[in-house]
């Protein structure tokens, strides 16, 4: 059994289900192919290495071209190279075969989605930690400043973990217990209820619940 699947976040939309509007995030699982097979006898564990083709090479794909030419130049032909662990390898699994990630999950199933949050650069304490800021009337001068840095500031020290301005975003995050609302096999897209981390076009990993990465 495959642990999960990789895909690209397209963005958020809404669909109607039983006369109710459901906010969903669309994940694109198309154009993934198997580039390497790892077996327990040789590598110590069972897994498959999958790659995502760059858009300009999708129409040129042939299995012969993939196994002889493209696989030798991964940076040129592949956008992403990732690995998925499997509990047991199938005899039908071969290099160059298309990886149908949308067939691994079903509607109504619960999944965990991993991703990298959108980078915001250097942000102040109000934006980064959602501080309320100072009052905007009666002579208030605090504005969007950080405020007090605690009692150790007089000694030239700041307590570790103090919420201050700094780098915001690009952190690994996971949204758990999300419901798979719809599977579009023709478009190879997975519709997950709610929001997931990452900007549109970012790589995300969808893990089936009850299965660990190890």
Descriptive report:
With about 210 residues, this protein is mostly beta strands. It folds into two domains: about 5-120 and about 170-210, Elongation Factor Tu (Ef-tu), domain 3, CATH 2.40.30.10; about 125-170, no CATH class. Helices cover about 10% and strands about 40% of the residues. It contains four helices and eleven strands, in the order βββαβααβββαββββ. The strands form three sheets. Strands 1-2-10-9-6-11 form a six-stranded antiparallel β-barrel. A hairpin with a 4-residue loop joins strand 9 (about 170-185) and strand 10 (about 190-195). The radius of gyration is 23 Å and the shape is elongated. The model has no long low-confidence stretch (mean pLDDT about 90).
Question: Total helix count?
Answer: 4
Beta fraction: 35-45%
Order of strands in the sheet with most strands = 1-2-10-9-6-11
| H-E order | EEEHEHHEEEHEEEE
CA-based shape: elongated
Q: Major sheet: size, sense and barrel closure? A: 6 strands, antiparallel, barrel
First-residue to last-residue Cα separation: 13 Å
> Looking at this structure, what is the CATH superfamily of the largest domain?
Translation factors
Q: Give the tally of structural domains.
A: 2
What is the count of β-strands?
11
CATH level 3 topology of the largest domain: Elongation Factor Tu (Ef-tu), domain 3
* Helix percentage range: under 10%
Instruction: Specify Rg, calculated over alpha carbons.
Output: 23 Å
The CATH architecture of the largest domain: Beta Barrel
Low-confidence parts: none
Query: What structural class do the secondary elements suggest?
Result: mainly beta
Return the CATH class of the largest domain: Mainly Beta
Mean pLDDT: 90
């Amino acid at each position: 059994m495959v642990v999960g699947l990789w895909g690209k976040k397209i963005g958020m939309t809404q669909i109607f289900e039983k006369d109710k509007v459901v906010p969903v995030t669309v994940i694109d699982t198309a154009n993934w192919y198997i580039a390497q097979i790892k077996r327990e006898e040789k590598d110590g564990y069972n897994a498959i290495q999958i790659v995502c083709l760059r858009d300009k090479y999708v129409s040129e794909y042939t299995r012969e071209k993939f196994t002889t030419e493209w696989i030798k130049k991964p940076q040129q032909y592949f956008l992403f190279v990732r690995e998925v662990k499997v509990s047991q390898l199938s005899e039908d699994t071969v290099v160059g075969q298309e990886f149908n990630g949308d067939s691994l999950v079903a509607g109504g199933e619960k999944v965990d989605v991993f991703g990298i949050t959108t980078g915001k650069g250097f942000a102040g304490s109000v934006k980064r930690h959602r501080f309320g800021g100072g009052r905007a009337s009666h002579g208030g001068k605090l504005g969007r400043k950080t405020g007090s840095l605690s009692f150790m500031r007089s000694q030239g020290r700041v307590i570790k973990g103090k919420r201050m301005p700094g780098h915001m975003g690009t952190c690994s995050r996971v949204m758990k217990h999300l419901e798979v609302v719809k599977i579009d096999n023709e478009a190879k897209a997975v519709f997950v209820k709610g929001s997931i981390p990452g900007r549109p076009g970012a790589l995300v990993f969808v893990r089936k619940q009850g299965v660990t990465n190890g």
